[in-house]
Amino acid sequence: MPEFNSKAELVHQAVPVENKSTPWRSLVAYWILGLCNNFGYVVMLTAADDIIKNHSGSHDEEKGPRDCVYMSTGAILLADVLPALIIKLCAPFIPFFVHVRVALCIVVASAGFIMVAFSDTITMSIAGVVLTSFCSGLGEATYLQYSAFYDKNVLSTWSSGTGGAGVFGAASYTILTIFGMKNTLLIMLIVPITMGVSFWIILPRPSEEDQKTIEVQKRVNTEEISDPKTAFINKIKKIPSLMKYMIPLGTVYLFEYFINQGTFELIKIKNDFVDTKDQYHWLQVDYQVGVFLSRSSVNLFHVRHIWIFSVLQFFNVILFTTEAMYYYIPHFWIMLVLTLWEGLLGGAAYVNTFYRVSSETKEEDKQFSLAATSFSDSIGITLAGIVAILVHNKICDMPLP
Question: pLDDT tens per residue, the chain (401 residues)?
Protein backbone atom coordinates (compact mmCIF):
# COMPACT_ATOMS: atom_id res chain seq x y z
CA MET A 1 0.00 0.00 0.00
CA PRO A 2 1.39 3.50 -0.79
CA GLU A 3 2.47 5.90 1.96
CA PHE A 4 0.39 9.01 2.65
CA ASN A 5 1.72 12.40 3.68
CA SER A 6 -1.62 14.03 4.48
CA LYS A 7 -5.27 13.31 5.15
CA ALA A 8 -6.13 14.49 1.64
CA GLU A 9 -3.83 11.88 0.14
CA LEU A 10 -5.30 9.22 2.41
CA VAL A 11 -8.76 10.06 1.12
CA HIS A 12 -8.01 10.32 -2.58
CA GLN A 13 -4.78 8.65 -3.66
CA ALA A 14 -4.93 5.40 -5.65
CA VAL A 15 -2.93 3.91 -8.48
CA PRO A 16 -2.14 5.67 -11.81
CA VAL A 17 -4.61 8.17 -13.18
CA GLU A 18 -7.30 6.90 -15.54
CA ASN A 19 -7.66 8.64 -18.89
CA LYS A 20 -10.33 8.46 -21.54
CA SER A 21 -8.47 5.76 -23.47
CA THR A 22 -8.60 3.31 -20.54
CA PRO A 23 -12.05 3.61 -18.94
CA TRP A 24 -12.26 -0.18 -18.95
CA ARG A 25 -9.97 -0.34 -15.92
CA SER A 26 -12.42 1.38 -13.59
CA LEU A 27 -15.31 -0.66 -15.02
CA VAL A 28 -13.47 -3.96 -14.58
CA ALA A 29 -12.19 -2.99 -11.13
CA TYR A 30 -15.67 -2.08 -9.92
CA TRP A 31 -17.07 -5.35 -11.24
CA ILE A 32 -14.46 -7.30 -9.27
CA LEU A 33 -15.00 -5.15 -6.17
CA GLY A 34 -18.74 -5.84 -6.32
CA LEU A 35 -18.05 -9.56 -6.71
CA CYS A 36 -15.61 -9.72 -3.79
CA ASN A 37 -17.59 -7.44 -1.49
CA ASN A 38 -20.78 -9.51 -1.58
CA PHE A 39 -19.16 -12.92 -1.98
CA GLY A 40 -18.79 -13.73 1.72
CA TYR A 41 -22.27 -12.44 2.50
CA VAL A 42 -23.79 -14.76 -0.11
CA VAL A 43 -21.68 -17.74 0.95
CA MET A 44 -22.84 -17.40 4.55
CA LEU A 45 -26.50 -17.32 3.49
CA THR A 46 -25.99 -20.32 1.22
CA ALA A 47 -24.22 -22.15 4.04
CA ALA A 48 -26.88 -21.11 6.59
CA ASP A 49 -28.72 -24.43 6.45
CA ASP A 50 -25.43 -26.33 6.92
CA ILE A 51 -24.25 -24.08 9.77
CA ILE A 52 -27.47 -24.68 11.68
CA LYS A 53 -27.57 -28.42 11.02
CA ASN A 54 -23.91 -28.85 11.98
CA HIS A 55 -24.65 -27.48 15.46
CA SER A 56 -28.27 -28.49 16.02
CA GLY A 57 -27.50 -32.12 16.87
CA SER A 58 -30.06 -34.84 16.26
CA HIS A 59 -32.55 -34.06 19.05
CA ASP A 60 -36.08 -34.78 17.95
CA GLU A 61 -37.49 -32.08 20.22
CA GLU A 62 -35.80 -29.45 18.07
CA LYS A 63 -37.90 -30.36 15.07
CA GLY A 64 -41.54 -29.80 14.22
CA PRO A 65 -44.02 -32.11 12.47
CA ARG A 66 -42.43 -31.14 9.13
CA ASP A 67 -38.93 -32.24 10.20
CA CYS A 68 -37.63 -28.66 10.22
CA VAL A 69 -35.24 -27.18 12.78
CA TYR A 70 -36.85 -24.40 14.81
CA MET A 71 -33.81 -22.15 14.45
CA SER A 72 -34.44 -21.02 10.89
CA THR A 73 -31.90 -19.65 8.45
CA GLY A 74 -33.46 -16.29 9.34
CA ALA A 75 -31.20 -16.35 12.41
CA ILE A 76 -28.15 -16.53 10.16
CA LEU A 77 -29.67 -13.80 7.99
CA LEU A 78 -29.89 -11.48 11.00
CA ALA A 79 -26.26 -12.19 11.90
CA ASP A 80 -25.37 -11.58 8.25
CA VAL A 81 -27.13 -8.21 8.00
CA LEU A 82 -27.30 -6.47 11.41
CA PRO A 83 -23.61 -5.49 11.47
CA ALA A 84 -23.95 -4.27 7.86
CA LEU A 85 -27.00 -2.27 8.91
CA ILE A 86 -25.07 -0.56 11.72
CA ILE A 87 -22.02 0.24 9.60
CA LYS A 88 -24.17 1.53 6.71
CA LEU A 89 -25.93 3.82 9.16
CA CYS A 90 -22.63 5.23 10.41
CA ALA A 91 -20.45 5.22 7.28
CA PRO A 92 -22.13 8.11 5.41
CA PHE A 93 -21.56 10.40 8.39
CA ILE A 94 -17.86 9.73 9.08
CA PRO A 95 -14.82 11.11 7.20
CA PHE A 96 -14.09 9.24 3.99
CA PHE A 97 -10.65 7.61 4.45
CA VAL A 98 -11.05 5.12 1.63
CA HIS A 99 -7.77 3.18 1.98
CA VAL A 100 -8.26 2.57 5.68
CA ARG A 101 -11.78 1.30 5.02
CA VAL A 102 -10.68 -1.07 2.26
CA ALA A 103 -7.82 -2.51 4.34
CA LEU A 104 -10.20 -3.06 7.24
CA CYS A 105 -12.66 -4.85 4.93
CA ILE A 106 -9.98 -7.27 3.74
CA VAL A 107 -8.77 -8.16 7.23
CA VAL A 108 -12.26 -8.58 8.70
CA ALA A 109 -13.58 -10.65 5.76
CA SER A 110 -10.64 -13.04 6.06
CA ALA A 111 -11.21 -13.38 9.80
CA GLY A 112 -14.89 -14.19 9.18
CA PHE A 113 -14.12 -17.05 6.78
CA ILE A 114 -11.52 -18.49 9.14
CA MET A 115 -13.76 -18.26 12.22
CA VAL A 116 -16.70 -20.08 10.59
CA ALA A 117 -14.37 -22.69 9.06
CA PHE A 118 -12.88 -23.64 12.44
CA SER A 119 -16.04 -23.14 14.49
CA ASP A 120 -17.18 -25.84 16.88
CA THR A 121 -20.20 -23.98 18.30
CA ILE A 122 -23.13 -22.13 16.77
CA THR A 123 -22.07 -19.00 18.69
CA MET A 124 -18.62 -19.01 17.07
CA SER A 125 -20.16 -19.59 13.65
CA ILE A 126 -22.52 -16.65 14.08
CA ALA A 127 -19.59 -14.49 15.23
CA GLY A 128 -17.82 -15.33 11.97
CA VAL A 129 -20.93 -14.45 10.00
CA VAL A 130 -21.05 -11.12 11.86
CA LEU A 131 -17.50 -10.30 10.74
CA THR A 132 -18.36 -11.11 7.15
CA SER A 133 -21.43 -8.89 7.39
CA PHE A 134 -19.35 -6.00 8.76
CA CYS A 135 -17.07 -6.23 5.72
CA SER A 136 -19.99 -6.34 3.30
CA GLY A 137 -21.69 -3.29 4.81
CA LEU A 138 -18.55 -1.20 5.08
CA GLY A 139 -17.44 -2.19 1.58
CA GLU A 140 -20.76 -1.35 -0.05
CA ALA A 141 -20.98 2.07 1.60
CA THR A 142 -17.33 2.81 0.77
CA TYR A 143 -17.32 1.74 -2.87
CA LEU A 144 -20.64 3.43 -3.60
CA GLN A 145 -19.30 6.67 -2.10
CA TYR A 146 -16.05 6.35 -4.06
CA SER A 147 -17.96 5.78 -7.30
CA ALA A 148 -18.88 9.49 -7.19
CA PHE A 149 -15.34 10.17 -8.49
CA TYR A 150 -15.96 8.05 -11.62
CA ASP A 151 -18.35 7.84 -14.52
CA LYS A 152 -21.79 6.64 -13.41
CA ASN A 153 -21.35 3.49 -15.53
CA VAL A 154 -19.17 2.04 -12.76
CA LEU A 155 -22.44 1.65 -10.83
CA SER A 156 -23.62 -0.69 -13.57
CA THR A 157 -20.51 -2.87 -13.35
CA TRP A 158 -20.55 -2.70 -9.53
CA SER A 159 -24.17 -3.89 -9.51
CA SER A 160 -23.35 -6.62 -12.02
CA GLY A 161 -20.42 -7.71 -9.85
CA THR A 162 -22.58 -7.92 -6.74
CA GLY A 163 -25.01 -10.02 -8.77
CA GLY A 164 -22.10 -12.16 -9.93
CA ALA A 165 -21.16 -12.67 -6.27
CA GLY A 166 -24.58 -14.20 -5.79
CA VAL A 167 -24.14 -16.68 -8.62
CA PHE A 168 -20.49 -17.57 -8.03
CA GLY A 169 -20.79 -17.47 -4.25
CA ALA A 170 -23.85 -19.70 -4.05
CA ALA A 171 -22.76 -22.04 -6.86
CA SER A 172 -19.13 -22.39 -5.72
CA TYR A 173 -20.18 -23.17 -2.16
CA THR A 174 -22.77 -25.68 -3.34
CA ILE A 175 -20.23 -27.42 -5.61
CA LEU A 176 -17.21 -27.22 -3.29
CA THR A 177 -19.05 -28.70 -0.32
CA ILE A 178 -17.85 -32.08 -1.59
CA PHE A 179 -14.63 -31.07 0.20
CA GLY A 180 -16.51 -30.22 3.39
CA MET A 181 -17.62 -26.85 4.72
CA LYS A 182 -14.29 -26.12 6.49
CA ASN A 183 -12.10 -26.64 3.41
CA THR A 184 -14.57 -24.78 1.20
CA LEU A 185 -14.43 -21.66 3.38
CA LEU A 186 -10.63 -21.76 3.58
CA ILE A 187 -10.40 -21.95 -0.22
CA MET A 188 -12.53 -18.82 -0.37
CA LEU A 189 -9.86 -16.74 1.42
CA ILE A 190 -8.70 -15.92 -2.12
CA VAL A 191 -11.67 -13.52 -2.36
CA PRO A 192 -10.51 -10.83 0.13
CA ILE A 193 -7.04 -10.95 -1.45
CA THR A 194 -8.59 -10.36 -4.87
CA MET A 195 -10.46 -7.36 -3.47
CA GLY A 196 -7.16 -5.73 -2.49
CA VAL A 197 -5.63 -6.41 -5.90
CA SER A 198 -8.63 -4.88 -7.63
CA PHE A 199 -8.66 -1.71 -5.53
CA TRP A 200 -4.95 -0.94 -5.24
CA ILE A 201 -3.69 -2.28 -8.58
CA ILE A 202 -6.47 -2.45 -11.18
CA LEU A 203 -8.57 0.58 -10.17
CA PRO A 204 -6.98 3.82 -11.49
CA ARG A 205 -7.18 7.15 -9.78
CA PRO A 206 -10.19 9.25 -10.80
CA SER A 207 -9.48 10.96 -14.11
CA GLU A 208 -7.86 14.39 -13.81
CA GLU A 209 -9.68 15.28 -17.02
CA ASP A 210 -12.89 15.57 -15.04
CA GLN A 211 -11.62 18.34 -12.76
CA LYS A 212 -15.07 19.66 -11.86
CA THR A 213 -16.27 16.39 -10.32
CA ILE A 214 -12.98 15.78 -8.51
CA GLU A 215 -12.84 19.26 -7.04
CA VAL A 216 -16.43 19.08 -5.80
CA GLN A 217 -15.85 15.73 -4.08
CA LYS A 218 -12.55 16.92 -2.56
CA ARG A 219 -14.28 20.01 -1.20
CA VAL A 220 -17.07 17.90 0.33
CA ASN A 221 -14.57 15.57 2.02
CA THR A 222 -12.44 18.46 3.28
CA GLU A 223 -15.50 20.13 4.82
CA GLU A 224 -16.41 16.88 6.59
CA ILE A 225 -12.97 16.77 8.22
CA SER A 226 -12.74 20.48 9.13
CA ASP A 227 -16.33 20.97 10.39
CA PRO A 228 -17.91 17.55 11.10
CA LYS A 229 -20.82 18.95 13.14
CA THR A 230 -22.11 21.15 10.33
CA ALA A 231 -21.54 18.38 7.79
CA PHE A 232 -23.54 15.95 9.92
CA ILE A 233 -26.49 18.36 10.26
CA ASN A 234 -26.52 19.04 6.51
CA LYS A 235 -26.57 15.31 5.78
CA ILE A 236 -29.51 14.71 8.12
CA LYS A 237 -31.46 17.38 6.24
CA LYS A 238 -30.90 15.53 2.95
CA ILE A 239 -32.43 12.24 4.09
CA PRO A 240 -36.15 13.11 3.44
CA SER A 241 -35.37 13.78 -0.23
CA LEU A 242 -33.94 10.26 -0.52
CA MET A 243 -37.07 8.47 0.74
CA LYS A 244 -38.44 8.13 -2.80
CA TYR A 245 -35.50 5.77 -3.45
CA MET A 246 -35.14 4.18 -0.02
CA ILE A 247 -38.73 3.06 0.61
CA PRO A 248 -39.22 1.05 -2.64
CA LEU A 249 -35.76 -0.53 -2.31
CA GLY A 250 -36.28 -1.41 1.34
CA THR A 251 -39.66 -3.05 0.73
CA VAL A 252 -38.35 -5.13 -2.18
CA TYR A 253 -35.58 -6.46 0.05
CA LEU A 254 -38.02 -7.10 2.90
CA PHE A 255 -40.17 -9.25 0.63
CA GLU A 256 -37.43 -11.16 -1.18
CA TYR A 257 -35.36 -11.99 1.89
CA PHE A 258 -38.45 -13.14 3.74
CA ILE A 259 -39.02 -15.53 0.84
CA ASN A 260 -35.42 -16.74 0.78
CA GLN A 261 -34.86 -17.25 4.50
CA GLY A 262 -38.43 -17.84 5.67
CA THR A 263 -39.77 -20.23 3.04
CA PHE A 264 -36.95 -21.80 0.98
CA GLU A 265 -35.92 -24.37 3.61
CA LEU A 266 -39.59 -25.32 4.18
CA ILE A 267 -40.31 -26.04 0.51
CA LYS A 268 -39.67 -29.75 -0.10
CA ILE A 269 -40.82 -31.30 -3.35
CA LYS A 270 -40.28 -35.04 -3.06
CA ASN A 271 -39.51 -37.56 -5.78
CA ASP A 272 -38.16 -34.96 -8.19
CA PHE A 273 -34.88 -34.54 -10.08
CA VAL A 274 -33.26 -32.68 -7.14
CA ASP A 275 -33.14 -34.38 -3.74
CA THR A 276 -35.04 -32.52 -1.00
CA LYS A 277 -31.85 -32.02 1.06
CA ASP A 278 -30.25 -30.13 -1.87
CA GLN A 279 -33.24 -28.03 -2.91
CA TYR A 280 -32.50 -25.15 -0.51
CA HIS A 281 -28.99 -24.69 -1.99
CA TRP A 282 -30.18 -24.77 -5.59
CA LEU A 283 -33.03 -22.34 -4.93
CA GLN A 284 -30.40 -19.95 -3.55
CA VAL A 285 -28.24 -20.41 -6.65
CA ASP A 286 -31.22 -19.92 -8.95
CA TYR A 287 -32.26 -16.74 -7.12
CA GLN A 288 -28.74 -15.35 -7.47
CA VAL A 289 -28.73 -16.06 -11.22
CA GLY A 290 -31.83 -13.86 -11.54
CA VAL A 291 -30.19 -11.13 -9.46
CA PHE A 292 -27.03 -11.25 -11.57
CA LEU A 293 -28.93 -10.99 -14.87
CA SER A 294 -31.06 -8.03 -13.81
CA ARG A 295 -28.23 -6.16 -12.06
CA SER A 296 -26.28 -6.36 -15.32
CA SER A 297 -29.12 -4.88 -17.38
CA VAL A 298 -29.18 -1.16 -16.61
CA ASN A 299 -27.04 -0.14 -19.60
CA LEU A 300 -29.53 -1.92 -21.87
CA PHE A 301 -32.65 -0.45 -20.25
CA HIS A 302 -33.60 1.15 -16.96
CA VAL A 303 -36.88 1.49 -15.09
CA ARG A 304 -37.77 4.83 -13.53
CA HIS A 305 -40.83 3.68 -11.56
CA ILE A 306 -38.97 1.47 -9.06
CA TRP A 307 -42.05 1.04 -6.84
CA ILE A 308 -43.41 -1.50 -9.33
CA PHE A 309 -40.79 -4.01 -8.15
CA SER A 310 -42.19 -3.82 -4.60
CA VAL A 311 -45.71 -4.61 -5.79
CA LEU A 312 -44.63 -7.58 -7.89
CA GLN A 313 -42.39 -8.94 -5.12
CA PHE A 314 -45.31 -8.83 -2.68
CA PHE A 315 -47.25 -11.22 -4.90
CA ASN A 316 -44.24 -13.55 -4.77
CA VAL A 317 -44.43 -13.48 -0.97
CA ILE A 318 -48.00 -14.77 -1.12
CA LEU A 319 -47.08 -17.49 -3.59
CA PHE A 320 -44.00 -18.81 -1.78
CA THR A 321 -45.62 -18.66 1.66
CA THR A 322 -48.68 -20.62 0.60
CA GLU A 323 -46.45 -23.19 -1.13
CA ALA A 324 -44.43 -23.62 2.07
CA MET A 325 -47.69 -24.21 3.94
CA TYR A 326 -49.67 -26.38 1.52
CA TYR A 327 -47.21 -28.00 -0.95
CA TYR A 328 -49.41 -27.45 -4.01
CA ILE A 329 -46.68 -26.93 -6.65
CA PRO A 330 -46.02 -30.37 -8.16
CA HIS A 331 -42.56 -29.98 -9.74
CA PHE A 332 -39.27 -28.45 -8.61
CA TRP A 333 -38.61 -26.86 -12.00
CA ILE A 334 -41.67 -24.65 -11.46
CA MET A 335 -40.09 -23.44 -8.22
CA LEU A 336 -36.88 -22.71 -10.12
CA VAL A 337 -38.75 -20.54 -12.63
CA LEU A 338 -40.56 -18.63 -9.89
CA THR A 339 -37.33 -18.16 -7.93
CA LEU A 340 -35.53 -16.86 -11.01
CA TRP A 341 -38.34 -14.30 -11.42
CA GLU A 342 -38.00 -13.29 -7.77
CA GLY A 343 -34.26 -12.73 -8.28
CA LEU A 344 -34.83 -10.69 -11.45
CA LEU A 345 -37.13 -8.32 -9.54
CA GLY A 346 -34.70 -7.91 -6.65
CA GLY A 347 -31.69 -7.23 -8.83
CA ALA A 348 -33.58 -4.79 -11.03
CA ALA A 349 -34.75 -2.83 -8.00
CA TYR A 350 -31.17 -2.48 -6.74
CA VAL A 351 -29.45 -1.38 -9.93
CA ASN A 352 -32.22 0.96 -11.10
CA THR A 353 -32.40 2.62 -7.69
CA PHE A 354 -28.70 3.47 -7.57
CA TYR A 355 -28.68 4.48 -11.22
CA ARG A 356 -31.44 6.99 -10.46
CA VAL A 357 -29.62 8.29 -7.38
CA SER A 358 -26.42 8.80 -9.36
CA SER A 359 -28.25 10.50 -12.23
CA GLU A 360 -30.64 12.70 -10.26
CA THR A 361 -28.68 14.00 -7.25
CA LYS A 362 -26.40 17.05 -7.27
CA GLU A 363 -22.67 16.39 -7.53
CA GLU A 364 -21.92 17.62 -4.01
CA ASP A 365 -24.64 15.33 -2.57
CA LYS A 366 -23.80 12.23 -4.58
CA GLN A 367 -21.37 10.54 -2.16
CA PHE A 368 -23.73 10.79 0.78
CA SER A 369 -26.87 9.96 -1.23
CA LEU A 370 -25.43 6.73 -2.63
CA ALA A 371 -24.20 5.56 0.77
CA ALA A 372 -27.37 6.56 2.62
CA THR A 373 -29.65 4.83 0.11
CA SER A 374 -27.72 1.58 0.62
CA PHE A 375 -28.90 1.69 4.24
CA SER A 376 -32.50 1.00 3.16
CA ASP A 377 -31.85 -2.48 1.78
CA SER A 378 -30.28 -3.51 5.11
CA ILE A 379 -33.34 -2.23 6.97
CA GLY A 380 -35.54 -4.37 4.72
CA ILE A 381 -33.33 -7.43 5.16
CA THR A 382 -33.26 -7.02 8.95
CA LEU A 383 -37.04 -6.86 9.14
CA ALA A 384 -37.22 -9.87 6.82
CA GLY A 385 -34.96 -11.87 9.14
CA ILE A 386 -37.18 -11.15 12.15
CA VAL A 387 -40.42 -11.97 10.32
CA ALA A 388 -38.85 -15.05 8.71
CA ILE A 389 -37.98 -16.56 12.11
CA LEU A 390 -41.52 -16.05 13.43
CA VAL A 391 -43.30 -17.33 10.33
CA HIS A 392 -40.87 -20.23 9.88
CA ASN A 393 -41.57 -21.54 13.38
CA LYS A 394 -45.35 -21.19 12.92
CA ILE A 395 -45.24 -23.19 9.69
CA CYS A 396 -42.97 -25.76 11.36
CA ASP A 397 -45.73 -26.42 13.88
CA MET A 398 -48.36 -26.95 11.18
CA PRO A 399 -49.33 -30.53 10.30
CA LEU A 400 -48.26 -31.79 6.90
CA PRO A 401 -50.86 -31.07 4.20
Answer: 444 444 444 444 444 455 544 488 899 999 999 999 999 888 887 777 677 666 655 444 456 667 776 655 566 767 777 888 888 888 888 877 889 999 999 999 999 999 988 988 878 888 888 898 899 899 998 998 888 888 878 888 998 999 889 888 878 887 887 888 788 889 999 999 999 999 999 998 876 655 566 666 667 667 777 777 887 888 889 999 999 999 999 999 999 989 988 898 888 888 888 888 788 878 988 998 999 999 888 778 788 899 999 999 999 999 999 999 999 999 999 999 999 999 999 999 999 999 899 889 887 788 889 888 988 988 998 898 889 888 988 888 888 87
67: phi > 0 → left, psi -120 to 50 → alpha, else beta; which? left
Contact 295, 350 (CB under 8 A): yes
pTM, full prediction: 0.78
CA dist list (Å): 174 to 23, 25, 102, 111, 185: 35, 31, 28, 21, 11
Residues 6+ apart with CB under 8 A from 337: none
